[in-house]
Design brief:
The protein is mainly α. The chain is built from six helices and two strands.
């Protein structure tokens, strides 16, 4: 099994004229091979599937009657593996009446099975390349820190000076990360390019419609 060669056969790279010549030679003067010597012993597998399908219907009827009346005596089956407890089988579970399922659901609802706590060892994965593209994703899949609820941004406050003039006190503007600025610029650039392509397609469709109308009016 360690010496498997999955490469294509050597004959697949032969030129066409050489392949035709070899086929003609094999047809005219085939290679003399020694007789085949079988070292294995044949095994009795009974009636082949093709012969069984080709048999007459009355033969199968008599065979079935013979199997029912005098079945073949087979040696007892010896199991070398130990059985594994898999619980209740699906067929047995489906065969229960409806009230059995209702009682089981109530039992699980009132006194659920005590299971050990789940231990998660994997870290969250950045879904769909969220580090490089501006997408609306679950923030829990992007951050591996606990949830932190920040207070709302302060609203601009209005102050009064002794002269009676109304001034607006600017609120502190948080600096944006360079990745967010780059993503916003890329998003705006994509929108402008899509609008430009839309204008080009609309102009082409308009020109084709105008040409068709002109051709119909002129030649018809």
């Amino acid at each position: 099994m360690n010496n498997l060669d999955l490469a294509p056969p050597e004959g697949i790279t032969l030129p066409l004229w050489r392949s035709l010549l070899l086929n003609v030679i094999d047809r005219v003067a085939p290679e003399r091979l020694p007789p085949l010597n079988l070292t294995s012993k044949p095994m009795d597998v009974g009636l082949m599937l093709g012969d069984r399908l080709a048999a007459n219907w009355y033969r199968t009827v008599f065979t079935n009657i013979a199997d029912v009346v005098a079945p073949q005596d087979l040696p007892p089956l010896e199991l070398s593996s130990s059985p594994v407890e898999v619980g209740e089988l699906l067929g047995d579970n489906m065969a229960h009446p409806w009230w059995h399922s209702l009682l089981g659901s109530l039992r699980d609802r009132l006194s659920p099975e005590r299971l050990p706590p789940l231990e998660v060892t994997a870290e969250p994965v950045n879904a769909y390349g969220a580090n490089t593209w501006l997408q609306v994703l679950d923030w829990s899949s992007l951050l591996d820190t606990p949830k932190v609820y920040l207070p709302d941004a302060p609203s601009p406050e209005l102050g009064y000076v002794p002269s009676g003039e109304l001034i607006e006190v600017p609120s502190p503007i948080a600096e944006l990360a360079p990745d967010i600025i780059a993503a916003q610029m890329q998003f705006k650039r994509d929108i402008s390019r899509s609008r430009f392509r839309q204008k080009i397609w609309i102009s082409l469709v308009t020109a084709q419609v105008a040409f068709l109308i002109f051709a119909i009016v002129k030649f018809v």
